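A reminder from the course coordinator: this example appears on the midterm review sheet, so study it carefully.

Given structure:
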């Protein structure tokens, strides 16, 4: 009788461990697949950002109007971008790209580079398309890796949530500071409404 209990316990523990390792392997395989898709679209974004910089850099030397302000600002942000680690999305890259977009739009309005404008617009469209796909893949990765019990496996194996890239090229964007300010004001408004009721 005692032997049967020990055998039953050992079998139960062995089966539980086997099931856990199978679940862990499945979760890690899924995370790797999702991370690969995120990285694929991120690499596309970096490639198009580099094309944009390559297109605009020579034009900065030809700039005549307001040469000291917009051109110099773009040169500074291009230089900063080249020094950043672009292997993954982070807030430094987002902030830098925000300012590149702002100054690029001003630069293109002031200077009449017809062919370059068309190419720049095309690159902006490709960037925006890849950003949209990147953000969808990030949402998929983050929701999967944040679901229990996958959350515990993901965190214990070094998988962290990915950052959304919230810049759209060729249009005015709200700066991250203003986004935070607006969301904080909205949150305060909701809190006040809930206190009143």
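Designed residues:
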């Amino acid at each position: 009788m005692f032997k049967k209990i020990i055998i039953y316990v050992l079998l139960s523990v062995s089966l539980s461990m086997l099931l856990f390792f199978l679940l862990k392997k499945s979760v890690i395989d899924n995370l790797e697949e999702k991370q690969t898709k995120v990285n694929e679209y991120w690499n596309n974004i970096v490639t198009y950002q580099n094309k944009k910089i390559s297109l605009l850099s020579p034009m900065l030397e030809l700039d005549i109007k307001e040469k000291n302000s917009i051109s110099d600002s773009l040169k500074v942000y291009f230089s900063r971008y080249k020094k950043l680690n672009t292997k993954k999305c982070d807030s430094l890259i987002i902030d830098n790209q925000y300012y590149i977009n702002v100054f690029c739009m001003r630069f293109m309005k002031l200077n009449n580079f017809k062919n370059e404008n068309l190419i720049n617009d095309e690159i902006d469209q490709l960037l925006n398309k890849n950003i949209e796909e990147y953000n969808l893949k990030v949402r998929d990765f983050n929701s999967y890796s944040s679901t229990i019990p996958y959350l515990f496996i993901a965190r214990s194996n070094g998988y962290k949530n990915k950052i959304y890239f919230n810049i759209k090229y060729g249009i005015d964007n709200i700066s991250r500071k203003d986004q935070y300010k607006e969301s904080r004001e909205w949150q305060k408004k909701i809190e006040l409404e809930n206190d009143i009721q």
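Residues 27-187 form one domain. The chain is about 80% helix and 0% strand.
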